[in-house]
Design brief:
359 residues
Length: 359
């Protein structure tokens, strides 16, 4: 662990009886990083967060916070603060009393409490709310107060467990911007659990994609999105997700030819002879007037309009794939579509293991 690392796990495992739910988790983050644990429900991300917090004992491996071994240290001594899904505010206390309650319990003097409260209220812009009760606040305001209660402690590490999942879509966007501003303002070190890839891409400096208790990929948002390590990450990131098509590769003098059910594609990548998973993102497809990457045009099955974008759904054998179109496209179902893929848009994965095999 380097001097600047605020969190490090090495081969961390968690089991319930004989069932292992976290498998050799090794991640690290620097001071000031925003690490997002991302994955579908049941992938182990909240369990990992609870292990970091000390709410769950780890079965094997090591956990360090601020350069110190915290594997056996109780939660109160880990110098962390948590923000939960539920706001967990005391209904009979004012906002100010909720925020400073933990400091009061720890016996911190009133002058220090008030100074900390003023600092946090300024950062979160909640000065007008300090005398109100939680019942008088909106959902977004309550979540802001819950963050204030964590902020007032000034810990080494903040842990957020899906804090926006109870908010409606508009409030989620607003609070996402609030959390990003908070991170930039106080340079907090944050571990954040979510299943929402938009939250992950907009907030994170590092993303840990998890599935079934395994780390699928760990890296920056750009690395996760533009260079997925395997087909799980490729499918999980993106809306619509990456198109993945089973193909058979045949080497040529200038690259490879891919046989894709009813189509074939010419790619400037030397691939070994045999089966491969070929992928490209819907937004990377360029619509052209004559056959290009794919030697025959696609027939549009339907057009899905989302407002800012439109997507053509086309069949490639038995696989439905998506191609992004201009929002005001005049194309419609039944029209033919020629597609060109730039070199950076090509992704190839091992047909058996699903791991990335070429660029």
């Amino acid at each position: 662990m380097t001097d600047t690392q605020v969190l490090s796990t090495v081969n961390l495992k968690k089991s319930y009886g004989e069932v292992e739910v976290l498998h050799d988790i090794s991640v690290a983050m620097e001071s000031g990083d925003f690490l997002v644990l991302l994955g579908p429900s049941g992938c182990g991300k909240s369990t990992l967060l609870n292990c970091i917090a000390g709410l769950e004992a780890i079965t094997a491996g090591q956990l360090q916070i601020g350069g110190k071994d915290m594997t056996q240290v109780p939660p109160r001594d880990r110098d962390i603060a948590m923000v939960f899904q539920s706001y967990a505010l005391y209904p009979t206390m004012t906002v100010g009393e909720n925020i400073t309650f933990g400091m009061k319990v720890r016996g911190i003097d009133k002058a220090t409490q008030q100074a900390a409260l003023a600092r946090v209220a300024s950062v979160l812009q909640i000065e007008p709310l300090l005398q109100r009760k939680p019942s008088e606040l909106s959902g977004g305001q309550r979540q802001r107060i819950a963050m204030g209660r964590a902020l007032v402690r000034d810990p080494k590490l903040f842990l957020f467990d899906e804090p926006l999942s109870n908010l409606d879509a508009k409030l989620r966007v607003e609070m996402r911007a609030e959390i990003r501003r908070l991170h930039e303002t106080v340079n907090a070190s944050i571990v954040y659990v979510t299943h929402d890839q938009i939250e992950a891409m907009t907030l994170a400096t590092k993303i840990c994609v998890m599935n079934q208790g395994y780390v699928q990929q760990f890296g920056s948002p750009d690395e996760i999105y533009f260079r997925p390590a395997n087909t799980f990450v490729a499918r999980f990131m993106g809306n619509p997700p990456m198109n993945l098509i089973a193909a058979t590769a045949s080497p040529t003098a200038t690259g490879s030819t891919l046989s894709l059910a009813s189509h074939s594609a010419k790619v400037p990548v030397s691939l070994p002879e045999g089966p491969v998973q070929f992928g490209f993102r819907p937004e990377d497809a360029e619509i052209v007037t004559a056959p290009a990457t794919f030697t025959t045009p696609f027939t549009i099955q339907r057009i899905e309009r989302t407002g800012g974008d439109s997507y053509a759904e086309v069949m490639l054998g038995e696989t439905m794939i998506n191609i992004r179109l201009p929002a005001r496209t005049s194309l419609q179902a039944g029209d033919e579509l020629n597609v060109k893929l730039p070199d950076h848009a090509l992704h190839f994965f091992d047909d058996q293991t699903g791991t990335r095999c070429a660029d």
